[in-house]
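REVIEWER CHECKLIST
Item 1: Sequence provided? yes
Item 2: Single chain? yes
Item 3: Sequence as submitted:
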Amino acid sequence: MIEAIFMWLGRTSVGTALQQSTAGFAATEALHILALSVVGGSILVANLTVLGRVLKTTAPETVFRQLQPFYRGALVLVAISGMMLVAAGPYKYYTNPLFPLKLGLLVVAVTLHAILSRRLNTQSVARRLAIASLVVWTSVVITGRWLGLI
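Item 4: Structure as written out by the authors:
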């Protein structure tokens, strides 16, 4: 069932177009990396604010609220461009054991960020969540980079 979904993605018009266009694939990958950079930057600033390392005079709630549109928009772009990259090489992703690990870490990272944004009023909990978030998001990036090499 899952293999069929991956192979179907590869047969879509987007999948076949990206498989046939080096420039299209490169542009999609660049968009994916740029969007991930915005997500990562938002996460880094938000978590470091909770930890009292940056924006010390700004309440973490304010920082989270102001970064939320950038984070959400970039996360949507990461998801769309990621699916396009999978469509360009479905078998590579289906057979790569790091792919489900990366997706699992991504789910945990997004969940941690959502929980943290609702627990900012409890400083000791928020600090632990911020540290965990930084570790998991870093793991997402590392796993994603290794994915491209294997």
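Item 5: Key structural point noted by reviewer: The two ends are 24 Å apart (CA to CA).
Item 6: Recommendation: ____
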